[in-house]
Amino acid sequence: xxxxxxxxxxxxxxxDAAAALNRTLAGFxxxxxxxxxxxxxxFIADPEFGFAHCLQGxxxxxxxxxxxxxxxxxxxxxxxxxxxxxxxxxxxxxxxxEAWIAGDLDRTLATWERILARHPHDLLAFRLAHFNAFWLGxxxxxxxxxxxxxxxxxxxLPGYGTLLACRCFAYEETGDYxxxxxxxxxxxxxxxxxxxxxAVAHVLEMQGRHGEGIAWLKGLEGxxxxxxxxxxxxxWHWALFHMERREFAEVLELYxxxxxxxxxxxxxxxxDLYIDVQNAASMLFRLARQGxxxxxxxxxxxxxxxxxxxxxxSAFTLPHWMMALAAAGRHEAARRML
Length: 338
Prior knowledge:
Blueprint: H1 15-29, H2 35-45, H3 50-61, H4 69-81, H5 88-101, H6 105-118, H7 123-135, H8 139-149, H9 160-173, H10 180-189, H11 194-206, H12 210-220, H13 230-244, H14 248-259, H15 265-269, H16 274-289, H17 297-305, H18 318-327, H19 331-337
Helix pairs in contact: 1-2, 3-4, 3-5, 4-5, 5-6, 6-7, 7-8, 7-9, 8-9, 9-10, 9-11, 10-11, 11-12, 11-13, 12-13, 13-14, 13-16, 14-16, 16-18, 17-18
């Protein structure tokens, strides 16, 4: 049986599908823009690779958008249909996807942790558990998850930088800023590791090291050319450091030409992507509280907010939609959202 980059058995007989899957997983872990193209290559090589369909379902759920859930459910159905040759681990991933679609996030997280108990090198399960525990506001679970698998890892293993990046962020979220060293080690392994870059930025923000934060992000920006929308969030962090120094012109410059940038193909393709909306609304809210005129910037966010009323897939995004409706004076729509 073929295996992935981390030595885990995968149920495809096609070496081309296995190679494309490895590229897909690597792209997912490093927030690469071309990740969906690699997944398409998996299906070209093996249309009945059940685990690849599960991965497609995961990607749909990662949009945290109700309109994408039917696509994820279709992928979950195909994953189950093509599961005859699937490994026990792959089948468990299918169960996690189905629980996620059903909105049972406790069962989803428990399933990923069950996978990790048997397969501590399954970075897909680890990264998804890390990510969802974060959005659920459960930093202690993030930390416990990485602490359970870290003893099974060593620097020689592929993906070690991902482990370090997640450990840095989990520790930062629980108030332990000594983990900055892990984030810096991960960036030394791969300067284009956006999650490690992000984790260190959080440490610097929490310690009020604003000048260092600007220098940190500026020094790494040249490695973000192949990145997806997470690069927008790093620019948001960059703007936040300027915000703390009351350099409001720099904040608006980064808003208009980096992290909200309406001329960007990424923004035009997914104008209501949850992370981008959070970036924009939270920064406009901060600026408004400091008496900075933000012009009509709230309007396009409010226009996007109204069609999303009733979509609860991302609880953290909801107050950001509400900020936009309230700031734009859309009181009737705000009442509907409540």
